[in-house]
Amino acid sequence: MSPTTRRAAQYVRMSTELQQYSTANQMARIAEYAEANALTIVKTYLDEGKTGLKIQGRKGLQQLLADVIANQAPYDVILVYDISRWGRFQDNDESAHYEFLCRRAGKQVVYCAEMFSNDGSPMANIVKGLKRAMASEYSRELSDKVFRGQSHLAKLGWHVGARGPYGMRRMMVSPTGKQRGTMDSGERKSLQSDKVILVPGPRKEIAIVRQIFDWFLNEKIYYQTIADRLNAMGISPPAYSEGWSKEIVKNILRNPKYLGTMIYNRTTERLSTPKRKNPPSAWIIKEQAFAPIIDRRTYERAQRRIHSNIRVHKDEYLEESLRRALALHGRLSISALKATKGAPSAVAYRRRYGTMRAAYATIGYTSDLDPVPTNRKKNTTLARVIAVVARLKTLLQQQGLSVAVVDHTTLVINRRLVLLVRTFLHNESLKGYQLFFSERAHWTLALLPSDRFTESDMEFYLLAKGIVPGKTIYLYRKRPVTWLQPLCIGKRCRR
After folding, report:
1. What angle do CA 169, 226, 280 make, to 5 degrees?
2. How far, in Å, are 102, 147, 213, 290, 292 from residue 199 at the CA level?
3. Which residues are 6's β-sheet partners?
4. Three-state SS at 147
5. Which whole number is the average pLDDT over 368-395?
6. What is the pLDDT of residues 169-213, one digit of tens each?
7. In what order do the strands lie in the sheet with 6-13?
8. What share of the chain is helix, strand, coil (3-state, %, to 5)?
9. Are 158 and 195 a contacting pair, CB within 8 Å?
10. Residue 305 burial by CB count (10 A; 0-12/13-18/19+): exposed, middle or buried?
């Protein structure tokens, strides 16, 4: 590399829209720009087949920002094909924010295929703002076109969706009506002109679906009992899950596709907005769209039984059930409620009162959980955070920085930068940990739960504002988050 050349990184994002945005085309144009401007590309960040609407799932861009913020980027320039490859964020300020993080760290973002120079001049900023608005508007228009097209297909009875339900398979059908073959989960049809229909799947899966309906109707057992029975029998669960659960069983019993009915647009999450339910008037329903695997009489019997169990209890009944459980068992707990005949489930109480403790309080009962272990655990966690905060304060003050501690867990650096210290929380239902973020924090230091209390055995994650995908992050025991790398001290963290 010549002494006069500068180091650069390239960010490439591939989507399923147009061939012009293939990774090869983007890299070729970026290479031309680099050669013409005496730049040497030393690193590539790649996101293949990822939406530009949000940063979640875009590991390439997340890693780029993490390297830049952590001052681990051995380059001065970041080359991107055009503004749409950086992202089609629906909030233009989000796109600008990520670029600002790079600029603040001394890294210039260059859009190689754009006709303006990203030099920070007033005209460049105006054009860039317009381009960002055009990129987000393109996504809105494309989303509307896709929705109209999928709605039309659903009205005709074609399957619209990424995967079929358990016991059924997606079948590619040519324009002439010829069946080309089934697709596994995650596979896509190769020809745009082909359509997709649902067909009965393997006989073993069909038998399991019918067995679930039989147990529910004839043995009168409920979702969790059915799931436990299937797990005990060693029956393979649906491909998208690790085991049978009451949610999977309930969805099977309520799915009209087993009846041969296609229903589309029951929920919406267009433009990566939070998923929400649509009113029945917005549903698109096509009966007898494909071959059923459950007869109508069986399906309708199951729906009647499901709806008969959805009851809205009066406050008096809920409170009386708590008193009966207390009289029978001498204490109140979820297990005591389960063992009390006729008592509503804990779910009913949580829906009404928010927590079980609040429900118990309606009859003047205080939970008999031993407060000593609870307080000990709380104090141990808080003490660990306080110790880390004190250590950080000392280290930062040694660097000549002004540091103030707020609420034992927050450091305010130079009166404006906020560093929040938190611990991951156990989440047994997800078989892992979860962490909640605060919008006011510029950085979050997340400590992994541990019985060890010494700094030499600490494992933690330093997360900067702007690269966190959402307000909550999860660490799964069986599915590690690859973009989130721990900073470790001590033997415990060696890998």
Report:
1. 60
2. 50, 24, 19, 7, 8
3. 39
4. helix
5. 66
6. 989 988 888 888 888 776 777 777 888 889 999 999 999 999 999
7. 39-47, 6-13, 77-80, 108-111
8. 40, 20, 40
9. yes
10. middle
pTM over 0.70, yes/no:
no
Rounded distance between C-alpha atoms, residue 271 and residue 273, angstroms: 6
Measured CA distances, 37 to 7, 30, 32, 81, 344 (Å): 11, 11, 9, 15, 71
Pairing outcome for strands 179-183 and 403-406: unpaired
Show Cβ contacts of residue 103 under 8 Å, excluding neighbours closer than 6 positions: 109
* Gap between the Cα atoms of 494 and 198, Å rounded: 49
Length of the chain: 495
Burial class (CB in 10 A: 0-12, 13-18, 19+), 12: buried
Contacts of 408 (CB under 8 A, 6+ apart): 382, 385, 386, 389
Residue with tokens 């009390």: 340
- Three-state SS at 489: coil
**486 close to 433: Cβ distance less than 8 angstroms:** no
Cβ atoms within 10 Å of 55's Cβ, excluding its own: 23
Q: For the chain, how many helices (H) and strands (E)?
A: 14, 20
Distance (Å, rounded) from C-alpha 423 to C-alpha 446?
Answer: 5
Q: Which is nearest to 377 in space by CA: 453, 306, 326?
A: 453
* 447: enclosing H helix or E strand: strand 443-447
Q: What is the pLDDT of residue 41?
A: 94
d(CA 218, CA 216): 6
pLDDT digits (tens, 9 = 90+) for 232-257: 899 999 887 888 988 899 999 999 99
Is it the case that residue 221 has pLDDT exceeding 50? yes
Q: What does the alpha-carbon distance between residue 104 and residue 303 come to, in Å, rounded to a whole number?
A: 58
- Kind plus residue range of the DSSP H or E element containing 250: helix 246-254
